[in-house]
């Protein structure tokens, strides 16, 4: 066979091979183009869904970013009530180290369990020292009542988002100390049977606590709840020790009704969401959580792959359910949160690195528990109003409405009627607590009941 013939045969065989290779490369290129187009379309669809979710949040009246959070959070002019109250609270001094253990509301067990027992001398002395050190602050606190609640603007974008140790809690701590100081002042007035003054002190304490009720971060809400709880501790002890007038009891009932801020925790959850959404736009703000993902090239891969957007969409869906749960009737909230928690623990963690890191809803129990205390206090005080007029405790708690309270509140944990027990000299109104078991109004390590008790006032034993 001649060389020319062999060359022609080789050329003839090479052409189909080149065509096959060309078709293969064209097919690979087509697949790549389709994959890129599909990936781009999926990314665009994902972005569209994210924007739709964010718009739905705005349409529902909530902020969808840090920039929107400040406009949404209620505040008043810094020159009006907020600034005056801040200055008054900031003037409260810490208890001296030598007396702190003896001060009511700073350490447990300082007030006698039986309000007819006299206050121990060391407690009385500690109270007088602390009150003397804060006379000027007390004067300012009493003057701010009536200015209106609110706060000055806060630049949320300058706060580091991750959770513990970064929140602006100084104001909350000041409010907490101010409420404790005022409660101690009320106890001091009770010792002197100065009923008008003790009522003024406790109502001022509630007012100071409520100055935090529109805040959208949990630390401030925690301090609000703690401050309100201090006033309930004080009035529970005082009302069995010093006879208050019917008008004064009625004022406490009304004050505690208004102190139950039903949307406070939902505002916290909405605030969390607005702050955390910003993390997905600027993930470098996660540096305090020390996630490996946020280091170097890993975040670039996470972002470019679309997993960051998928994470954000899942976070919005999950957090939306928590915000909705926080807005449910108070007795349904804990169960709703528990169901969501169980579902989240069973869910796959793929594509949810940041969601898992930032998802938070702490404080739901505290919010319900203090609501329970507010409700038992209102009901028990209305029973005391009944006793003052009828000369005996009501046989059935329902007998107090509507003459002594417009409507009896329900158990904050079950939604059922509050529990009630009475003897000749004592009445107890209580919620059954988180375990939803009736333990007879006992609150200890083995019982979750949340009681408010009133004893028939008798002459306090001489000191």
Descriptive terms for the model:
15 helices; two-stranded antiparallel sheet; 463 residues
Detailed description of the structure:
The chain contains 15 helices and five strands. With 463 residues, the protein is mostly helical. Among the domains are: 1-35; 74-153 and 159-261, no CATH class; 266-362, no CATH class. It has a three-stranded antiparallel beta sheet with strand order 1-2-5. A two-stranded antiparallel sheet has the order 3-4. Strand 1 and strand 2 (426-431) form a beta hairpin. Helix 7 (195-210) packs parallel to helix 9 and helix 12 packs antiparallel against helix 13 (330-346). The longest helix is centred in the first third of the chain and has 57 residues, at 3-59.
The end-to-end distance, rounded to whole angstroms, is: 133 Å
pLDDT < 50 stretches: 76-80, 155-169, 459-463
The share of residues in helices is 55-70%
Elements, N to C (H/E): HHHHHHHHHHHHHHHEEEEE
Fraction of residues in β-strands: under 5%
Structural class: mainly alpha
Number of strands: 5
Largest sheet: 3 strands, antiparallel
Average pLDDT, rounded to a whole number, is 81
Shape: elongated
Give the strand order of the largest sheet, numbering strands 1, 2, ... along the chain: 1-2-5
Element layout with pairings:
Blueprint: H1 3-59, H2 66-72, H3 81-90, H4 121-133, H5 135-143, H6 170-191, H7 195-210, H8 218-239, H9 246-259, H10 264-281, H11 297-304, H12 307-326, H13 330-346, H14 353-358, H15 364-390, E1 419-422, E2 426-431, E3 443-444, E4 447-448, E5 450-455
Antiparallel strand pairs: 1-2, 2-5, 3-4
Helix pairs in contact: 1-12, 3-5, 3-6, 4-6, 6-7, 6-8, 7-8, 7-9, 8-15, 9-15, 10-12, 12-13, 13-15
